[in-house]
Amino acid sequence: MLFRSIAEMGYAGIETCGYSHGVAAKDAVKIFKDLGLTVCSAHTGVPVGDTLKKVLDEAAVVGCKRVISGVGGEGFKTADAIKATCDKFNEAAENVAKAGLTFGVHNHWWEFEKLADGTPAYKVMLQHVDPRVFFELDVYWIQTGGCNPAAVVAEFGARAPLLHIKDGPCVHNQPMTPVGEGKVDIPAVVKAAKHNAEWLIVELDTCATDKLEAVGKSYQYLAGH
Q1: Distance from CA of residue 163 to its chain's centroid?
Q2: Could you tell me which of 19, 78, 69, 65 has the C-alpha nearest to residue 38?
Q3: What does the pLDDT read at residue 160?
């Protein structure tokens, strides 16, 4: 079983993002518990409007206190678009706080690309987003977007308790690699995150090799650093 293989590699936890392999959420949670895997967070839709109940129900089933989402690139094209996006994030944080949860934002590359005036989009976002919103920084997409991942991790500090650790060529539409085999300076990222990150979460969107093998190699690399 996939989850057992992950536990046997040495991973301490798992982040959910829907369920596959024919396993329902409640059944997956029992498997996680039996394997000693903590559910550190859940990727969901943005908890506003009709999506709110679904997000709260999922968080209750998996038993985590952090829910994470994001929006597409159009939400970061201009300063006005970013402000509207932040209004949505702020509403999400308010909504889940009433249920004892916290809301976090996961980035892609568009948050770290520059606007027409040369300002990185994330700088504008930080001016408008509620302090209660935390960040799950994806270091691969930060570099792909044109910024230095270690510097950004240091800049966000305690506001980024979760990191998505991935590696590869940092080129759009090219497959990723096991951590330590690409262009991201992972040791610098780990050093920058040392006093603030609670979880380093290995994620592979795509991979040119066997994904499970790459996940295992990634654990071994991180364990040695």
Answers
A1: 6
A2: 65
A3: 98
